[in-house]
Specification:
heterodimer, A: 406 residues, alpha/beta, FAD/NAD(P)-binding domain, Rossmann fold, 2 domains, 21 strands, globular, B: 544 residues, alpha+beta, D-Amino Acid Oxidase, Chain A, domain 2, 3 domains, 10-stranded mixed beta sheet, 6-stranded mixed beta sheet, 21 helices
Chain lengths: 406, 544
């Protein structure tokens, strides 16, 4: 999406084919750039850590991007999100700290502005806070947060609100999921009832912390709430689905389409044709025998989860283009026994040259860039760099394409 | 002190919380004995929870072992009556494939009929129309009264009934010593695995119902039982492709039974001798996965394209006959040792061997011996008295839950029979879904935590199927731990440890089959728990 937006901005004509919803639907509310080096060293300033990263892992996508370009692309990414009206805080010079749904403090690059975050680990100015949850909403654990804040010396008021009292929500079993709750708040009357109820309960809190189930369409709803209540209102992350992630995805899509891009959601590429080390055309399920032709192609189909990679019992393949994969052939080395240890399969990905051009049958494909989680050579979970790799390599591909055309 | 001592005095102590131990506890309690059960882990964690869950008709044993076959068909009929809510009356087919000798079918049918097992020869085409998932190239099919049985519910229900009759259950207690007085066993000393606290329990009789672990307990008592652990590996497929149990009509071999159960089906088993010191660490090998996949696809070709959810392995307690210590003559039948007669050790009884199917009969035999020793003259009633959950028919229970959401009604009654009524408070919170894959409600989880000896997430999975569905705990584990923490007042730090333990337990079963959608799911789960939630690296981060 970032690549598409950048290309549209530069006047190119792009189509994005997406077989399903983006991984942003399960987002934490933050994008990580680089939290940890492969050897486990913590990173406070991502840009300063790049030299050491290069020494430790020459195959890392950031190493390929290079230090100079890294800063430029990180800045570009921040600008692009901002232009798409996604309000985020943070900078590529210094990580700040977010809270996870389990109230664990983690470093990160950019965080949705409405979320709780801190410049230094666990430094909050509040003394009296209210932590709100909704009856029967099981994807948010207020006790984790309350416990953490209490241990930091704050006085915490636990507030439970039964949404049945603010709106006539039907007895649907999946009712109490973040997105459904967010939809409820889009209703003016329900929101007004909620504000009244909340007002009566928060007493003298300095801050009211709500599960991140607000702002699916009204992106300023937290600000509105804060103004009405007259106190700071911040969001705490919930278990997926992520309302703010869905909202961000929606805003990016809007931005792309407003710039003239074509977005084909729910279509799947089922055939890619190559000629002379170039992609000539692609076919999709919905368009049957009508091929799509482009001068340049970008593959950002993700890792196993997004089905950009497919594991067979003893092999790893790219099911879309059949590109070469960087992986360990011995299956025994794919996994660690402890699920929380480093899993080698997490670093598998599509082989690319130094400009992220795909490699097929050991030959570079001149008009096919690869970006994001489809790439190998990094471990998003252990290094905390998934968001950054996605955004930066996407913008890298866009700039390469624009540069090539100049 | 005196009161405490009195409280720890029992007529009988049973060690081992598998089906046999739970069944013996229930039988003893029904006969009026003051009984206690001690289990080092949760109930049904050993061989009980690690088999096919096949309600054998006995047909599998008919040709090779008539005695086992007869025991099976008799217990099969009893369990359909007393444990109806744990049983799926699916029937079973024994199919012959082109490679199989059709002559075996005649011998098979003859042996079944001799053992009293109904065995109807079907035209393969008719069989295929009744069970469309079976291999269409089958050249023969015989219908027998097989079924499936849920070992977790069965064990839990026995425990529930025993407790209702005054029994004491101590899970997560490890027996560290058998107490002796003048050559007589007088009780046990046990350590609470969670707190480290030590307890002594006294009784004139201690029953060893530890399955394969019984050899170790016997050693602790100073007597020797020669056991030969045989590992059996199984695969669980993520869909219930067959509605009728599928067996191969040939001499019992590897990977030749496909059993439908709940929302899944499972193929088993393999049989490999393993050293005794490895019984606590069973893992499934790649070659076992291959054997099982091949066998499964022969029975039902669609399984080639069906997602494998996970795999696991159990250990059968095979016991060497006393007159053959070399182990060449190994019994798969029920073994009851009166150690007073066998070894001159008074107060110690071992019940082992057998199979899940015969747990009740094993319990009856053990309890008969206990009663004889205690001079209690009360007959066994477990073959007639229904277990909790099976006491009223499904329709009657469903009527009581009519105002609840239909999917919850059905799955709750399917899992818990008439006990479902107790779990249904029918309000927003209780009807809220914890597990969408298996339709487990808050009410069900909440009841299990309070009334079914649940101490952690893994126990909860065995009682309710939370985390057993296609997502393997991705979403529900997090919800369930919240409820557990609230009701058991667990601190957030332990909550996270519990989740880590649960997710690792799931990963152990997924790792050997982690490809395709299973790896996809695992990567997603890792991403959610590790990256989004930050679980696992807390110690490394020195979280404040």
């Amino acid at each position: 999406m970032a690549c598409g937006i950048r290309l549209q901005e530069a006047g190119k004509k792009c189509v994005i084919i997406s077989s399903g919803q983006s991984a942003l639907h399960f987002s934490s509310g933050s994008f990580d750039l680089l939290n940890t080096l492969p050897d486990g060293t913590k990173v406070a300033n991502p840009i300063e850590a790049l030299k050491e990263l290069k020494a430790q892992n020459p195959k890392h996508p950031y190493t390929k991007i290079g230090e100079e370009k890294f800063a430029h692309l990180a800045q570009e990414a921040q600008r692009l999100l901002s232009d798409a009206k996604i309000r985020m805080v943070g900078s590529y010079h210094a990580n700040h700290y977010r809270l996870t749904p389990f109230a664990i403090t983690k470093p990160t690059w950019l965080t949705m502005a409405d979320y709780v975050y801190a410049e230094q680990p666990d430094t909050f100015a509040w003394k009296n806070i209210s932590v709100v949850n909704f009856t029967a909403y099981l994807d948010f654990h207020p006790n984790f947060f309350a416990d953490k804040f209490r241990r930091m010396g704050m006085s915490v008021r636990d507030i439970e609100i039964d949404l049945a009292t603010i709106a006539n929500n039907k007895n649907n079993l999946s009712e109490m999921r973040s997105t459904n709750i967010a939809r409820l708040f889009e209703n003016e009357k329900a929101f007004a009832n909620f504000v009244d109820l909340l007002k009566s309960k928060i007493e003298k809190s300095d801050a009211v912390l709500l599960p991140a189930c607000l702002g699916l369409e009204h992106t300023d709803i937290v600000e509105t709430l804060s103004n009405i209540l007259g106190v700071t209102v911040k969001l705490l992350p919930t278990f997926p689905p992520s309302v703010s992630g869905i909202c961000a995805q929606h805003l990016l899509k809007q931005r792309f389409m407003n710039l003239g891009g074509t977005y084909m959601l729910g279509d799947t590429v089922n055939k890619v044709e190559f000629e002379d080390n170039r992609v000539t055309k692609i076919y999709t399920v919905n368009h049957n025998d009508i091929p799509l032709r482009g001068e340049q192609y970008v593959l950002c189909s993700g890792s196993f989860f997004s089905q950009g990679l497919l594991a067979l019992p003893n092999d790893i393949i790219d099911p879309i283009c059949g590109l070469d994969i960087d992986y360990i052939s011995d299956r025994k080395q794919w996994f660690a026994d402890n699920t929380f240890d480093k899993q080698n399969y997490g670093s598998f990905g599509i082989k690319t040259d130094e400009h992220f051009l795909a490699i097929k049958d050991q030959k570079t494909i001149d008009n096919l860039h690869v970006c994001g989680a489809s790439l190998g050579g990094f471990n998003a979970l252990k290094e905390g760099c998934g968001g950054g790799v996605s955004l930066l390599t996407a913008l890298y591909a866009a700039e390469e394409i624009l540069g090539n055309k100049k | 002190m005196k009161i405490e001592k009195l409280m720890n005095e029992y007529d009988v102590i049973i060690i081992g919380g598998g089906a046999t131990g739970a069944g013996t506890l229930r039988d003893c309690s029904l006969r009026g004995l003051k009984a206690a059960l001690i289990e080092r882990s949760d109930i049904a964690t050993g061989a009980t929870g690690r088999n096919h869950g096949l309600l054998h008709s006995g047909a599998r044993y008919a040709v090779t072992d008539q005695e086992s076959a007869q025991e099976c068909i008799s217990e099969n009929q009893i369990l359909r009556h007393i444990a109806r809510h744990c049983v799926d009356q699916t029937d079973g087919f024994f199919i012959s494939l082109p490679d199989d000798d059709l002559a075996f079918q005649n011998k098979f049918v003859e042996s079944c009929l001799k053992a009293g097992i109904r065995a109807d020869v079907l035209d393969p085409k008719e069989a295929l129309s009744l069970e469309p998932s079976m291999n269409p190239s089958a050249i023969g099919a015989v219908r027998v009264p097989d079924g499936s049985i849920d070992p977790f519910r069965l064990t839990a229900s026995n425990i529930q009934d025993a407790k209702a009759h005054g029994a004491t259950v101590l899970t997560y207690h490890l027996v560290t010593e058998l107490l002796h007085r003048q050559g007589v066993i007088t009780g046990v000393r046990a350590t609470d695995m969670r707190t480290g606290e030590q307890t002594e329990l006294h009784a004139p009789i201690v029953v060893n119902a530890c399955g394969i672990w019984g050899a170790h307990l016997a050693q602790m008592a100073g007597v020797k039982i020669s056991m030969f652990p045989a590992k059996g590996a199984l695969l669980i497929y993520g869909h219930r492709v067959n509605k009728i149990v599928l067996n191969r009509c040939r001499k019992p071999s590897d990977a030749d039974i496909l059993v439908p159960g709940d929302t899944i089906c499972l193929i088993g088993t393999t049989s490999t001798k393993v050293p005794y010191d490895e019984i606590d660490n069973m893992y499934v090998l790649p070659e076992e996965v291959e054997i099982l996949r091949k066998g499964a696809q022969e029975l039902s070709p669609i399984l080639e394209k069906t997602r494998i959810l996970r795999c696991y392995a159990g250990v059968r307690p095979l016991v060497a006959s006393d007159d053959d210590p070399s182990g060449r003559s190994v019994s798969r039948g029920i073994v009851l040792f009166d150690h007073e007669k066998r070894d001159g050790l008074k107060g110690f009884v071992t019940i082992t061997g057998g199979k899940l199917m015969t747990y009740r009969l094993m319990a009856e035999k053990a309890t008969d011996l206990v009663c004889e020793k205690l001079h209690v003259n009360k007959k066994c009633e477990t073959a007639h008295i229904k277990l909790p959950g099976s006491r009223e028919d499904k329709e009657t229970t469903l009527k009581k839950l009519y105002s609840m959401p239909v999917s919850i009604q059905e799955s709750m009654v399917y899992r818990h029979g008439d006990m479902a009524e107790k779990m249904s408070k029918n309000n927003t919170i209780n009807n809220s879904l914890v597990c969408e894959c298996e339709e487990v409600s808050y009410g069900e989880v909440s009841y299990a935590i309070d009334h079914m000896d649940v101490h952690n997430l893994i126990d909860l999975r065995r009682r309710t199927r939370v985390g057993m569905g296609t997502c393997q705990g991705e979403f529900c584990a997090c919800r369930a731990i919240g409820i557990l923490a609230k009701q058991k007042q667990i601190c957030p730090t332990r909550e996270k440890e519990e989740l880590i333990a649960f997710l690792n337990e799931r990963w152990k079963g997924v790792k050997p089959i982690a490809w395709g959608d299973s790896l996809r799911e695992s990567q997603y789960a890792s991403w959610v728990y590790e990256s989004v939630c930050g679980l696992g690296d807390e110690n490394k981060n020195k979280e404040q």
